[in-house]
Amino acid sequence: MSFPSRRLRRLRTSEKMRELVQQTTLSSKDFICPVFVQEDLKTRIKIESMSEMERLPLDDINDEVGTISDLGIPAIMFFGIPTKKDETGSSAFDDNGIVQKAITQIRQNFGDKIVIMADVCLCQFTSTGHCGIIQGDKVDNDTSLDTLAKIAVSQAKAGVDTVSPSAMMDGQVAAIRKALDENGFTDVSIMSHSAKHRSNFYTPFRDAAECAPKFGDRKTYQVSYTNAREAMLEVETDINEGVDIVMIKPALSYLDLIAETRRRFNIPVAAYSVSGEYALVKAASQLGYVNEKDITEEILYSIKRAGADMIVTYFAKSASKFLQES
Ligand code: PBG
């Protein structure tokens, strides 16, 4: 009889033994929960493409954030849907804009009991649906930087903890950092969508936030999913510009980039598990092809295992519930 030189099964013999050797952990503390808030809305609207996600009126966000906080989730990320869109995205930096009102309200009601993050981008607010300002037939980088900086400052005035630029304009972190500092918001942090890819996984979100480009696509500003080195250069550039947290987006098809960022840089790494990743799981589980809880757990653990310190996910609430129960 020959004996295997190593028996890895010894440490898999019981539930408790498996718990003891479990390397990667997952808890509600790892999550950032997106919250969609829509101006002039009277009652919640279901988001068709993202089962169980809703757009909320201002009146409902206290309850929603209360639920999120009670589940042990430390942070929320606001996305605003304004009534008015124009070429310059002016409602994005209006001190009375929908996101600014939401931030003010949650800060008043929750103090520092939850980390308030907000998306800094233009596509929900521009009539063109692009993430920057159009000049001629192009998304103009440097004009857009001024606007992104104004958005960040107005969110900071409302009391945001962390601004999260997702426009993929060159120099956006530096422009925002400078504007925040000059306006006295040295403690407001920046979590940049550093390597945000031109991804087909965003389609359901465009439904959710009404931000599809009216012409063209986002290929002139978002990173191609064919270019890993370029993604690392985006991360490095953001770090050089003074970012506090870098993000890789989407998550599941980009685990290699999460792992590489973790290995290369000593900075917190966030992963954004985007709307398409959520919708695929929801659709397959509704058809009975996969078990939603088991698949969700495996996906979120994988993102953690790859090296993410935190995950922006539409599963934040449901996963926190089942993690509490297990
Ligand atoms: C807007 C923005 C998008 C997402 C987050 N912010 C859409 C896009 O770039 O087209 C996608 C998030 C998701 O799909 O969950 N800049």
Task: Describe it.
This protein is an alpha/beta fold. The protein has a single domain, classed as Alpha-Beta Barrel (TIM Barrel), CATH 3.20.20. The protein has 11 helices and 12 strands. The chain has helices spanning 15-21, 61-70, 98-110, 141-158, 172-182, 203-209, 228-240, 255-264, 275-286, 292-306, 316-325; strands at residues 31-38, 45-46, 54-56, 75-81, 115-120, 133-135, 138-140, 162-165, 189-196, 245-249, 269-273, 310-313. The strands form 2 sheets. The protein has an 8-stranded parallel beta barrel, surrounded by 9 helices. A two-stranded antiparallel ribbon has the order 6-7. Helix 3 links the parallel strand 4 and strand 5 (115-120). The longest helix has 18 residues, at 141-158. It is globular and about 80 Å long.
Task: List segments where confidence is low: pLDDT < 50 over at least 5 consecutive residues.
Answer: none
Helix content bin: 25-40%
Name the hetero compounds present.
ligand PBG
Mean pLDDT: 97
CATH fold node name: TIM Barrel
The oligomeric state of the chains shown is single chain
Give the CATH class: Alpha Beta
- State the CATH architecture: Alpha-Beta Barrel
Tally of separate domains: 1
Q: Provide the succession of SSEs.
A: HEEEHEHEEEHEHEHHEHEHHEH
CATH superfamily: Aldolase class I
| Widest β-sheet, arrangement of strands | 1-4-5-8-9-10-11-12
C-alpha end-to-end distance: 41 Å
- Specify Rg, calculated over alpha carbons: 20 Å
Work out the helix count: 11
